[in-house]
């Protein structure tokens, strides 16, 4: 059983804002009709003084670019068609907007008893009212410890690059929303839900649940038309608690569904056992590109509402039990349905926790598969973002799991728990001083045994070529030792002597790891000594040649210090003496060869020493 840490808490401990988010209506009005961009600038920033200097930066360059893009795409004049409506929406308080502002309800225990839930409801009129005030820079007042809903930095950005302007693209998406919402029938209710665990994820009654079905997609996450829940690769601070000219997955998602922006001002930082869900939002925009190449493309052809599942992932120590527990718990909590009638649709996700978060794509896929299965998700749509080789490998993994008829706990234990245990044993072995094992020679758990190699071994997968000649799965190149190539081959011709097993789990894998590496214990010991002394293979070879011909015996290593360095105490003193004298092993070897020549040694013997 893949255990998860206990998070038993009282309902009162669910962190909710002390007050609501306030959005006062716009009270000031333009003195004259706004018919051009200069008039708009004076209204948005009354203290702005135009400059005639050609090198001065113009105000709100991204906003000007976005307005031009809107007019070109919709063939409409922004200042006569859309701007008057935005001004009216910002000035008129909807009847459904509470005078006290927006806030969450008291947390309630879910019907399944595993989490508490606090909700905030608002309709499309309120969302349009808040977004219109954001656009005219009448900034709403967020709840304490929540995000900033100011668009000034976005409008004033000039993050121009060869692909385009990200700030302008995000503003153009907002203008497309205003253009569309003016013609939409109002009344749709949007719900922000903040969930927090009360127990353990593995305590869920998943006995009757089978492994979730998986639809691996080469295309984008948006292409899963029948998925009603969309995973947001969030930070702990939803949308990083500010709106900037950037195009990450989360920022692109909010630009395409602007009604979700309201949640930034209502949700404080997520803790390790909390998630944020934004339900019943509508996607208005189709886009192209990503990050610096993000661009507005067109309006969505069909009206589609969906739920946003915002979950953050760890950014370090990805393979520890605590980190895996946390991320599986997060994903499970977000994927649990609200009730029997709502939230049972498919979930679409992708490389959550990867990229700048540093996670392994295959590892995160297995985590989300376990979470979706425990939450009884009918279909998990997984986008590989065009990585065909990874998609083929994940298909092999899924097929092998189903062929073995593994349960949810089998997958969690064999593919997650066992790898975490291996990494923990490696770290313990390194701390205990057993550096002669393979695992102790690497700096991070992910580099000890690549997760793809581990999972392929567990499932019996082998490298093979597809019909087109593309490698569907191939283990990473194995590290070959380059030490002492003159004295012996890198791969031993005789069977390797089995290492003596100790009580540590890391040492149980030593012989297997050395076999994978293709080196002997002696090579590992010498390489570790080289690393400690800061010398290279050539220095070691020359030093051994000198000692052999000068009569210095390579004594057996007895102490822990000698084992650590790979040299005996006498040999270490010699190296220190050489450095103290300001010479080198090569110079000593040259002098020795000259002495041999002067003593009348044959030319061939001297050549061998070089």
UniProtKB/TrEMBL annotation:
This is PARG catalytic Macro domain-containing protein. Residues 207-391 form the PARG catalytic Macro domain. GO terms for biological process: ATP generation from poly-ADP-D-ribose; carbohydrate metabolic process; nucleotide-sugar metabolic process; regulation of DNA repair. One of its GO terms (cellular component) is nucleus. It comes from Aphanomyces astaci. It comes from the Eukaryota. Substrate binds at residues 235, 249, 290. Pfam families: PARG_cat_C. GO terms for molecular function: poly(ADP-ribose) glycohydrolase activity. InterPro entries: PARG_cat_C, Poly_GlycHdrlase.
């Amino acid at each position: 059983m893949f255990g998860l840490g206990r998070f038993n808490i009282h309902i009162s401990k669910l962190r909710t804002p002390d007050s609501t988010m306030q959005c006062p209506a716009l009270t000031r009005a333009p003195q004259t009709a706004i018919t051009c961009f200069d008039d708009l600038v004076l209204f948005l920033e009354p203290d702005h003084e135009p400059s005639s200097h050609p090198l001065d930066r113009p105000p709100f360059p991204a906003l000007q670019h976005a307005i031009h893009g809107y007019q070109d795409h919709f063939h409409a004049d922004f200042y006569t068609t859309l701007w008057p409506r935005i001004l009216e929406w910002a000035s008129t308080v909807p009847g459904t907007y509470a005078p006290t502002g927006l806030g969450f309800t008291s947390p309630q225990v879910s019907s399944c008893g595993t989490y508490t839930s606090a909700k905030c409801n608002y309709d499309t009129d309120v969302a349009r009212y808040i977004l219109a005030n954001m656009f005219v820079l009448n900034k709403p007042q967020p709840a304490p410890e929540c995000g900033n809903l100011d668009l000034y930095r976005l409008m004033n950005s000039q993050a121009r690059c060869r692909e385009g302007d990200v700030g302008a693209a995000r503003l153009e998406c907002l203008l497309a929303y205003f253009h569309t919402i003016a013609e939409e029938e109002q009344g749709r209710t949007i719900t922000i839900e903040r969930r927090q665990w009360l127990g353990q994820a593995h305590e869920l009654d998943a006995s009757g649940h089978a492994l979730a079905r998986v639809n691996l997609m080469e295309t984008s996450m948006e292409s899963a038309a029948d998925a009603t829940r969309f995973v947001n690769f969030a930070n702990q601070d939803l949308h990083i608690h500010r709106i900037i000219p950037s195009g990450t997955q989360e920022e692109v998602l909010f630009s395409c569904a602007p009604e979700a922006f309201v949640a930034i001002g209502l949700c404080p930082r997520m803790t390790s056992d909390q998630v944020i869900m934004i339900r019943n939002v509508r996607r208005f925009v189709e886009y192209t590109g990503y990050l610096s190449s993000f661009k507005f493309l067109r309006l969505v052809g069909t009206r589609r509402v969906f739920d946003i599942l915002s979950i953050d992932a760890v950014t370090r120590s990805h393979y520890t039990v605590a980190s895996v527990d946390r991320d599986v718990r997060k994903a499970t909590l977000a994927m649990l349905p609200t009730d029997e009638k709502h939230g049972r649709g498919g979930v679409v996700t992708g490389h959550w926790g990867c990229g700048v978060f540093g996670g392994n794509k295959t590892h995160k896929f297995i985590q989300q598969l376990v979470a979706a299965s425990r939450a009884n998700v009918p279909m998990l749509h997984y986008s590989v973002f065009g990585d065909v080789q990874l998609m083929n490998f994940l298909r092999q993994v899924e097929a092998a799991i189903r062929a073995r008829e593994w349960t949810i706990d089998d997958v969690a234990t064999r593919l997650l728990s066992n790898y975490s245990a291996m990494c923990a044993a490696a770290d313990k072995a390194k701390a205990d001083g057993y550096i002669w094992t393979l695992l102790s020679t690497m700096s991070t758990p992910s580099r000890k045994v690549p997760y793809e190699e581990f999972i392929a071994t567990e499932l019996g997968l082998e490298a093979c070529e597809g019909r087109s000649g593309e490698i569907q799965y191939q283990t990473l190149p194995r590290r070959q030792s380059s030490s002492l190539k003159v004295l012996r081959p890198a791969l031993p011709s005789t069977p390797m002597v089995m290492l003596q097993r100790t009580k540590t789990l890391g040492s149980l894998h030593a012989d297997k790891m050395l076999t994978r590496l293709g080196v002997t214990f002696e090579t590992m010991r010498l390489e570790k000594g080289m690393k400690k002394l800061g010398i290279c293979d050539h220095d070691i070879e020359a030093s051994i040649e000198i000692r052999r011909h000068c009569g210095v015996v390579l004594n057996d290593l007895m102490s822990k210090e000698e084992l650590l360095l790979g040299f005996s105490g006498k040999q270490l003193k010699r190296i220190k003496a050489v450095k103290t004298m300001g010479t080198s092993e090569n110079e000593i070897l040259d002098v020795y060869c000259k002495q041999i020549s002067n003593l009348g040694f044959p030319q061939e013997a001297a050549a061998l020493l070089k």
